[in-house]
Design brief:
38% helix; two-stranded parallel ribbon; alpha/beta
């Protein structure tokens, strides 16, 4: 008889990160169940408490990863009640069911909690600044998750390829902008520790080999401004960046956390290896670059 596979249930499985997590779980031999509102194994709206809890109690997964979220700052500001329901209250539903089944809960959070200190690296205990509804609701989601003793909150800043049309990701916008002759804006004072979804998924499942809980930063081990990040992508692709215009994030975005570098020392100590540096993140993203030219050139530098 073969060994029974462990089950991982992924909410938001059709999102940019969710797809990578689903693939990583499959590649590692997990029985991976994707739950989402669009084309998953299981259809679910995370705001539906009964449906969410029924899926968990029926599948009884060893691990639950919640990557479902409203990440649009505009939508969070215009509809804060919906942002709260998806980014926070749904986590309470998931955590409550996880307690009953004894499942480990992994809550995907954000880095949008810091402002005003440039390229500083923030550890898991750094004081937060909640400047907008997105940050507020994601932080409330962390609180709900951490109300369960077997919960791991992942703070991160990710980018990857959606390849699905519609809203483009940051890296998709970067590549389209580099391939265009039109002028585009770059933020010189917006600092992040961006990591690719593929690298984040690999490291996350490595973390699951260790019995840890609480908050942990999972990101690039180096901080870079949006300007520096795009220049690194351009250099790797052999692209000219003369048509970029350097501006301050505060010129176009209000109430935005812009100093969101993450200190990944705790994660590296647990993993026993270093997380990717900027060069390695850039190399990974360029290697994944699809050959087609993206059609939507809206700017998602958030």
């Amino acid at each position: 008889m073969g060994t029974e596979r462990r089950t991982v249930l992924i909410f938001g499985a059709t999102g940019m990160l969710g797809r990578e997590l689903h693939l990583e779980a499959h590649n590692r031999g997990f029985k991976s169940i994707g739950a989402s509102r669009h084309g998953p194994d299981v259809f679910v709206d995370v705001c539906n408490k009964e449906k969410v809890q029924d899926i968990i109690t029926t599948s009884r997964p060893e691990i639950i990863i919640n990557s479902a979220a409203i990440v649009s700052h505009t939508l969070c500001e215009t509809n804060p009640s919906l942002a709260y329901d998806v980014n926070a209250r749904a986590v309470e539903f998931i955590g409550s069911a996880a307690k009953k089944t004894g499942s480990q809960l992994v809550q995907i959070s954000t880095d949008h909690f810091f402002s005003g200190d440039g390229p500083a690296l923030h550890d898991e205990e750094a004081p937060v600044k909640l400047l907008n509804e997105y940050a507020k609701t994601k932080y409330e989601g962390e609180i709900f998750a951490l109300g369960y003793s077997d919960a791991l909150v992942i703070r991160t800043n990710i980018t990857g390829f959606r390849n699905s049309g519609g809203v483009v990701s940051f890296i998709e916008w970067v590549i389209e902008s580099l391939n265009s002759d039109e002028e585009f804006n770059l933020f010189s004072d917006y600092y992040t520790s961006t990591i690719s979804t593929r690298q984040a998924s690999t490291a996350l499942f490595d973390l699951l080999n260790h019995e840890i809980s609480g908050k942990i930063n999972l990101a690039c081990r180096e901080v870079a401004s949006k300007e520096e990040f795009v220049k690194a992508i351009a250099m790797r692709m052999g692209k000219n960046i003369d048509h970029a215009r350097l501006i301050s994030v505060h010129d176009v975005l209000s109430a935005r956390a812009e100093s969101v570098g993450l200190d990944v020392s705790r994660a590296e100590n647990v993993l026993g290896y270093q997380l990717p540096n900027l060069e390695e993140v850039v190399r990974q993203l360029v290697s994944e670059c699809p050959t087609r030219v993206l059609s939507d050139n809206t700017s998602p530098q958030s």
